Amino acid sequence: MSEPLLETRLLCKNFGALAAARDIDFRLDPGARHALIGPNGAGKTTFINLLTGILKPTCGQVLLKGRDITAVAQADRVRLGIARTFQINRLFRGLSVLENVYIAVAERLGAATSMLQPAGQRKDVVDEAMHLLETLKLSDDASQRISELPYGRQRLVELAIALGLKPEMLLLDEPAAGVPSAESHIILDAIAALPKHIGVLIIDHDMDLVFRFAERITVMVSGAIFAEGAPKEIGANPQVRAVYLGQAGHG
Amino acid sequence: MSAPTLARADHPAALALAGRHRARWSEAIPWVLALAYYFAFPRHLGFGYDLLITILFALSLDLALGYAGIVTLGHAAFFGTGAFTVGMLAKHGIWTEPITGLVLAAAAAAIIGLASGWVLLRTTGLTLLMLTLCTMGLLEELANMGADYTGGYDGLDNLPIPPLFGLFEFNPLYPKTQYLYVLGVLFVCFVFVRTLVYSPFGQSLTGIRENTLRMHAVGAPVRLRLVTCYAISAALAGIAGGLWAQANAYVNLSALGLDRAATVLIVLVLGGYGRLYGAIVGAVAYMVLSHFLAQLYPTAWQLGLGLLLVAIALFARNGILGLWDQLLKRSSAKRAPP
Closest approach of chain A CAs to the CA of B8, in angstroms? Predict the structure, then answer.
């Protein structure tokens, strides 16, 4: 087995008496298409926040390519290659689509500390941002303000910002949430076209999406890993069906 | 493979980004007007330089509040630091030369900004607002108690400010030198702030204003950026305070108080924050209005200003310039129906 891209060892997080994450041993391989599912309140978001460094674990370790990053701050983890998108859009709403992606690319290329040069003259940043918008078929909207953009397109910008960080690992938190079904194919196509070398972890309720993209699925229940396996195994697992898939329609 | 690259750079959005920092002709208007004022109202140059200093102070606040979204009600702390730096150095005969005096004022204010920002900018919103207010209160009390150095409640007057470049006298009755000196410093500072806000650094500040959490998630050292911006803003406010002390040849506790801090906030909100020229428009509107209202209704002139502010808060959230933008949009929409 190759070295995992990301690994957690006995990771746990307590909020007072509530154990939101318990003894999570998890691994994500380079280039993986991995899904994390589980009923509401299963601790998926807590787990993501532990991986990205928004929360500090009560115990256990997070390792990136074998290096212990448990104590590394969120912004530094981004520089090490962990990027994420948000379940609810977190965009720079007053700025244009291009400026949104520019901010991410400028941060990665170390341009953001430059004070006396006009932003538009950093051709490397602008070109890369425009290139990214092209690959996501967003270039027609590049001048649009986020607040004037349809929600489905906003979800794409959410993805574009994360991709502007050239991550090795990408966490997609319900990437198609809130997108009308008529537009959701845009998001699904974009996810299908993600560069192969990025390890992707998708958190979602949408079983169609999960079973379409994931090569491996982890099921979380009550803060712990309940089952893990290939989509077929998970789909056939009677316990998983009982706790989760059976009630997917109510989620 | 060169064709798509060309298309990329030629994209309207990329062109807009590449060209937004270029100066437009209309941007010369305020400077031409400021020079015209010098010739048209030679007897009101005192009011004139006061206005220009207010513009610089409001501009410094715009960088912190309008661009980086740092809410502060204590910006006069830095104005006062600059003013007292110049005042104390001059009064005690340590340093009197005007331009290097401004550099010292900026440095002192930046140090206070750096030190207080490092602690304060861990917080946001109302907490931050209260803490900036408290910091200013502490400095004000410090200046009040250190009467041996600061002159305490009476302040320091008759500051010995030598001629500018050794040539141009600061004449208190006919303040030609003061006006042009302040105008020159304002211009340099304005060009600096304008350059800053259109830079990648400025773009990252607007990113923090628009969505702080996302800035963390793109790997930006958010607090370091905010503290840097706060210190720069403080330095500019310090320059404004230094100019005020030099031009008036006195300094007192009014440089540090809530009154001044609140006024500059009102000026910026009135003009429109986060847009550079809001500081200019707001300061002109505020100072001219208060001047004439005070002449018309000597007892109740602040009532008029209050009503205007209520109207701005209700109907023009983005200030006078925001209102202007809306009017332009509406008239162009009428001319070219979709």
Answer: 6
Listed by start position, the domains of chain A span 1-81+167-251, 91-165
Instruction: Check pLDDT > 50 for residue B2.
Output: no
Which residues 98-127 of A have a C-beta within 8 angstroms of B?
A: 98-99, 102-104, 106-108, 111-123, 125-127
Nearest to B206 among A52, A95, A104 (CB): A95
CATH topology for the A1-81+167-251 domain = Rossmann fold (3.40.50)
Closest CA to A244 of A230, A171, A225: A225
pLDDT bracket for residue B123 (50, 70, 90): very high
**A12 φ/ψ angles, rounded to the nearest 5 degrees:** -140, 155
Minimal Cα–Cα distance from A6 to chain B, Å?
18
As a whole number of angstroms, the distance between CA B54 and CA B56 comes to 5
pLDDT at A245: 58
Average pLDDT, chain A: 89
Select from B319, B313, B112, B276 the least CA-distant residue to B189. Answer: B276
| Size of the A and B interface in Cβ pairs below 8 Å | 144
Dist CA A162 CA B308 (whole Å): 44
Determine the Cα–Cα distance for residues A42 and A234; give it in Å rounded to an integer. Answer: 17
ipTM for the complex shown: 0.88
This prediction's pTM: 0.91
The helix (H) or strand (E) run that includes residue B50 is helix B45-61
Q: Indicate which of A90, A166, A169 best probes the interface with B, i.e. most B CBs within 10 Å of its own CB.
A: A90
